[in-house]
Amino acid sequence: MAAIGTWAFSYPVVKKMKLHLLQQKPATDCVEESLAEVEDNLETGKYIVGRGGYPNRDGQVQCDAAIMEGRPGRFGAVAALSCIGTPVSVARQIMEKSNHSMLVGEGALAFAKDQGFKVEDNKRMLSSESATAYQDFMEKKKECKGHDTLGLIALDLDGNIAVGVSSSGIPFKSSGRVGDSPLPGCGLYADSRVGAAAATGDGDKIMCFCPSFHVVHLMKQGVCPADACQAVLNDIQERIGTKDMFEIGLIAMNIKGDVGAASSVEFPYAFWHNGREDVQLHTQLPI
């Protein structure tokens, strides 16, 4: 059993995942429930996740989320979804109940309504902080940057592995913009024979390189998670050059529960695996 999450704010989340796993909850439930709790909390919106996240240029909070199991064909995602407090739970219902793997915008919202999710006014999706930031943007063109996508990976007692990601996207993005988070192979990827990986950072750049798939592919060849993440970042940097390197952080876990990370910026992440009493918070230095 093991769990890992992106950024320092995932530390309490990974602690809860640890408890879920010790209670023998399936990996998918651990990931969904833990992500949904963060998404639905106005206080964590400042990390560019869910409720309380920064709106787009039209003042609308639009979220991307996805969940993927290691078993073939087990994937669900939403993109540009508004007015729902727990986008990852909608993504899971798509994986479980839809003939499709991804729904976006109004289609995703209609599906959520059909599944009984509570639809809320956009004002309830904004925190006072994100509302003020949007006002400053509109009046003063004051930018607000952030790339703190929450990515979680869990490995349960039965050897099942699942990965989930959620993001409200870059502040004041264009309406309908979709980042890397809900795209399989880009923001996340899992293979039950190998392991899983997740990405965070500048989604518009990340999606061009399919780094999560690349990491899992390297682990399939026997590379450890840390070295696989580092190799993928090295490959990207070699291709585009050091001066054009963008913000990206990668986490990975193999099917043994070994974890690793690499990043182009200082990148804290939290992790735990069976045999350790406490969740660890580690800061990965940039390449």
Automatic annotation (TrEMBL):
<dbReference type="InterPro" id="IPR000246">
    <property type="entry name" value="Peptidase_T2"/>
</dbReference>
<feature type="binding site">
    <location>
        <begin position="200"/>
        <end position="203"/>
    </location>
    <ligand>
        <name>substrate</name>
    </ligand>
</feature>
<protein>
    <submittedName>
        <fullName>Zgc:153169</fullName>
    </submittedName>
</protein>
<dbReference type="GO" id="GO:0005737">
    <property type="term" value="C:cytoplasm"/>
</dbReference>
<dbReference type="Pfam" id="PF01112">
    <property type="entry name" value="Asparaginase_2"/>
</dbReference>
<comment type="similarity">
    <text>Belongs to the Ntn-hydrolase family.</text>
</comment>
<feature type="binding site">
    <location>
        <begin position="177"/>
        <end position="180"/>
    </location>
    <ligand>
        <name>substrate</name>
    </ligand>
</feature>
<feature type="site" description="Cleavage; by autolysis">
    <location>
        <begin position="148"/>
        <end position="149"/>
    </location>
</feature>
<feature type="active site" description="Nucleophile">
    <location>
        <position position="149"/>
    </location>
</feature>
<dbReference type="GO" id="GO:0003948">
    <property type="term" value="F:N4-(beta-N-acetylglucosaminyl)-L-asparaginase activity"/>
</dbReference>
<dbReference type="InterPro" id="IPR029055">
    <property type="entry name" value="Ntn_hydrolases_N"/>
</dbReference>
